[in-house]
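Duplicate of earlier report; Tripartite motif-containing 9 input re-posted below.
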Amino acid sequence: MEEMEEELKCPVCGSFYREPIILPCSHNLCQACARNILVQTPESESPQSRRASGSGVSDYDYLDLDKMSLYSEADSGYGSYGGFASAPTTPCQKSPNGVRVFPPAMPPPATHLSPALAPVPRNSCITCPQCHRSLILDDRGLRGFPKNRVLEGVIDRYQQSKAAALKCQLCEKAPKEATVMCEQCDVFYCDPCRLRCHPPRGPLAKHRLVPPAQGRVSRRLSPRKVSTCTDHELENHSMYCVQCKMPVCYQCLEEGKHSSHEVKALGAMWKLHKSQLSQALNGLSDRAKEAKEFLVQLRNMVQQIQENSVEFEACLVAQCDALIDALNRRKAQLLARVNKEHEHKLKVVRDQISHCTVKLRQTTGLMEYCLEVIKENDPSGFLQISDALIRRVHLTEDQWGKGTLTPRMTTDFDLSLDNSPLLQSIHQLDFVQVKASSPVPATPILQLEECCTHNNSATLSWKQPPLSTVAAEGYILELDDGSGGQFREVYVGKETMCTVDGLHFNSTYNARVKAFNKTGVSPYSKTLVLQTSEGCNFETQSAPYSQLVDIKKLLAVAWFAFDPGSAHSDIIFSNDNLTVTCSSYDDRVVLGKTGFSKGVHYWELTIDRYDNHPDPAFGVARIDVMKDVMLGKDDKAWAITEGGITKGATIGVLLDLNRKTLTFFINDEQQGPIAFENVEGLFFPAVSLNRNVQVTLHTGLPVPDFYSSRASIA
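Output:
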C-alpha cells in the first residue's frame, strides 16, 4: 500500500487530505488549502453579473483560459491574472508535491469558524493546482463543493494499517503479535491461540478471519455517514443524475436544476460504476504486471551490461596484446634479416679484402723480382727469362684490370621498411557497429537413425538443416558425466560423426551438439539420451572395473581424412582424400582435417607403394608447419622416419594428450619407448612423402588394448 500514499496527499500542503472536497474537475483539495489559494476577482467577472447578462450556464463559471497567465513565458516561477485592473500580480509558489499554487491576495480575516463555515471573500476564484482550471465561487463558497467521504475512509484505513502491531487477546503471559481477527467473535488471535481456541471446524468454520489491520479498521470505524446534498443540506442523496454525473436529492429533482435531467437509482449506479472501475482496474493491473516484468528485464540488462563490459574489455586487451606480440615477432624476424644482410656484406667485403691482399702480395713480389733482374749485367742470362717475365707482367696487369679493383658490395643496405600501411591500419583501428557481418550457423540436427551405442561406446551423427544457407566451420559435441552432471566437450572439429569410447557401462548419457563459424556459435541441438550396455568385457584385467573406467576417461574417436586445403600443391589425393601420393621427387607435407588438443587418439597408415627406398615420415604437426620439407625438419612437427618399412606395412600413431606423449607402432609393435614427451597444444595428423610413396589413412580406430590396459593400471 506504500505506493498508494501519493494518491492520499494534498497537492498544496503535501500532507494527507483533511476534510477533502471535490472540485468540478474531479481533483481533490483540503478545505483549508482550498481557502488558502482563493483569489478575489473583479465585479465584472462575478457569477451575478454573468447571470444578469444571460451568459451564466452553471453555478460554477470557469474563467476564460486566454484571460489567465499562470506561468510566464520563461517559466520564471511567477504567475498572474491578466486583464484585471484591480487584481494585483501574485507570486506563484510550489507545494511540497511540486505543483504551483497561488497564495491568497490578502490575508484571510480572523475568525473562529471552521474553514467550511468561515465567510469567503466576495467574487472569489479558485484554481485547481493540478489541471490549472479556474472557476468563480457562488454565494455558498467552499460549502458548494461536495465532500469526498470515500477518500477520508481510505486515508483512515491506510493510517490504521501503518499503526503499531496488535497483540493477541488470549495470551496469558507476554501477549504475542496477533495474526488474525475474527469478525464474529471480535477477538484478535495469534497462531497458537487461534488453533487452540478458534479451530476451523464446527460452527467456528463459518466465521470470517481477517488480517489484524483490517479488523482494527472495521472495529474502529464509525457507521458510515450518509452523504447530504450540497444544495439542500437536510436532504440525503437518493438518486444519480446521468447528465450531470453527480448524486442528487429528491428536492433537486422537484425544484432544482436537475428536474428535467435523466436520473437513476443511486444504488444501481453505485454497483454499475463499481463494476466499471473493477473492469478498468483489470486492464490497468495487466499493464502494471507488464511494467514490473519490464523493470526486471531492465535490471537484468544492467547486470548483463556490466558483465558484457568486463568481458569486452578483457577481449579488447587480449586483441591489442595479440597485435603487440605479433608486431614484436615480426620485429624480431626483420632484425634477423638485417643481421643476415649485415653478415653477408661483411663476408663479401672480407673475402674481397683477402683476395686482393694475396693478389697484391703476388704482384709486389713479381715487381721486386723484375727490378732485381733488370739490375743484372748478364745480357744472355737476361734474355733467357725476359720474354717470360714480360708475359707474366702483362698477365698480372690484365688481371687487375678485370673489375678486381671494384667493390663487390655496397655499403648501403638495400632493405627498406614500408610501415605506412601498418601505421594507417593502426590509426584506422576502430570498433564496428555491427558485431558480425554474417549470421551464426543454424542449429545442427542429430540423425537418430545413425546414432547408437555399443558396449561402453557411443556413436553420434549430425547434419546441418536442409535449407540452411550459413556454412559451419566446425562442430562441438558435448556429453554429460552419465550422472546428470555438467556437460563437457568431447569433440571439436569439422566432421559430422564421432564415436566416444570409455564410457561407464549401464549408464545414461545426454549428448548435444552445436555448430560454429567466425561469427559465433549456434544454439544447441535437441538433447539425445544414450544408454550404454550392461555387460563388461574387462574381467581378465587385474585392476577392478571401476578403476579402469575412472582412469580411461573419455576417449574421442573421430573419422577424418587428409586436408587438400592445407596440403602442398604437389600432393595428389584419391579415395575420398584417404589416399595420398606426390608428383615431386622432393618431400611434401599433408595434414589431416581434424586437430586434437586433448584426449587419446590413434590412427594408422598403410604403405600402398614403396619404390627406390624413399624416406616417408609420419607423426603430428602444427597447422603452420613447413609443407616443402621433410616432416620434422622444423620445430613445428614431431615425426618418425623409418627407412626399413616395405610395401604393405602399417604405421600406427598414438597421440596421448592426457599424458602429453607421442608413440609409434609398426605392424602392431611399438617402436621403442615413448618417442616424444611434453607434447602440448593443437596437433594435426601429418605425413611427408615423395612420388615414390603412396599411403592410405585409417581412422576411427580404438586405442591398442595393451596400451589401454597399461594406462588403466598405471
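The two ends are 70 Å apart (CA to CA).

Merging into the original ticket.
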